[in-house]
Design goal:
alpha+beta
Length: 210
C-alpha cells in the first residue's frame, strides 16, 4: 500500500469520526466546559488538540512503515535462505556425481584393506594372487573423509589374458588408476612380468543415509 493512499484513508476516517463526535451530546457538554475556561486554559487545550491531530496520524504511519519494513526484511531473509539451500542441494548433487566418477567403490584407509581389495579384484579376474606383490604403499588423508592411496604392484608369470582382465577390474570396475606400467615378456614362455604404479581415491560416507 502506498503512503499517499494510506494518508487519504486516515484523513477520511478522522473526518468521519469528527462528524460523529460533533453530533454527540458529549461534544456539546465539552463545548460548554471549554467556554467556561480561561483563555490560557483554552490555548493549552487547543495546542493539545492540534498536536494530537498531527501526532496520531504520524504515529500510525510510522508504525505501518516499521511493520512493512520488518515484513520485507523477513521476506528477504527467507528468500536468501531458500536460494542458499538450493545452491547447497545442487552442489551436493554435483559432488555425488563427481564422486561416482573419481572415487572408488569402497573406502580404503590402510595398507591391509588395499591389499584385500587388490586380492579381491584379482580373484574376480581369475588371477592367482600369489603372482602379485604390492610395495611402496603411501596414504594421504584429507579431513579424515578422503584418502589417496599410492602403491607399486609387481606382477610375474601372467598371461596376456590375465593381465588384460586384471587391468579391466582395476580401472573400469574399481577406479584404480594406473599412473605408469612397465611390462616385460619372457620369450620362451610368453608370460608377462613387470610393475605398475597405481593410485586410488576413496571417500568415507559421512552418515549411513548417504
Amino acid at each position: 500500500m502506498k503512503i499517499p493512499s494510506l494518508m487519504k484513508k486516515i484523513d477520511k476516517a478522522l473526518f468521519n469520526n469528527l462528524e460523529k463526535v460533533q453530533t454527540s451530546t458529549g461534544y456539546n457538554k465539552f463545548l460548554d466546559f471549554y467556554s467556561g475556561l480561561e483563555d490560557s486554559q483554552q490555548k493549552i487545550i487547543k495546542h493539545i488538540s492540534v498536536m494530537s491531530v498531527i501526532i496520531i496520524p504520524l504515529l500510525i504511519v510510522l508504525l505501518f512503515m516499521k511493520s512493512n519494513s520488518n515484513a520485507q526484511a523477513q521476506l528477504d531473509l527467507r528468500t536468501s535462505i531458500i536460494t542458499k539451500a538450493n545452491s547447497l542441494i545442487q552442489a551436493k548433487s554435483s559432488v555425488r556425481s563427481l564422486s561416482r566418477v573419481y572415487f572408488g567403490d569402497s573406502f580404503v584407509d590402510s595398507e591391509g584393506s588395499f591389499k584385500s581389495k587388490i586380492t579381491g579384484l584379482l580373484n574376480i579376474a581369475g588371477v592367482d594372487a600369489s603372482k602379485i606383490k604390492m610395495s611402496g604403499f603411501e596414504k594421504t588423508e584429507q579431513a579424515s573423509l578422503i584418502t589417496k592411496i599410492k602403491a607399486d604392484i609387481k606382477f610375474d608369470n601372467l598371461s596376456n589374458e590375465e593381465l588384460f582382465n586384471s587391468l579391466i577390474q582395476f580401472t573400469r570396475k574399481s577406479k584404480v588408476r594406473i599412473d605408469e606400467i612397465n611390462i616385460q615378456k619372457d620369450q620362451e614362455s610368453s608370460m608377462l612380468r613387470g610393475i605398475m604404479s597405481v593410485h586410488y581415491f576413496s571417500k568415507a560416507l559421512e552418515n549411513t543415509n548417504e
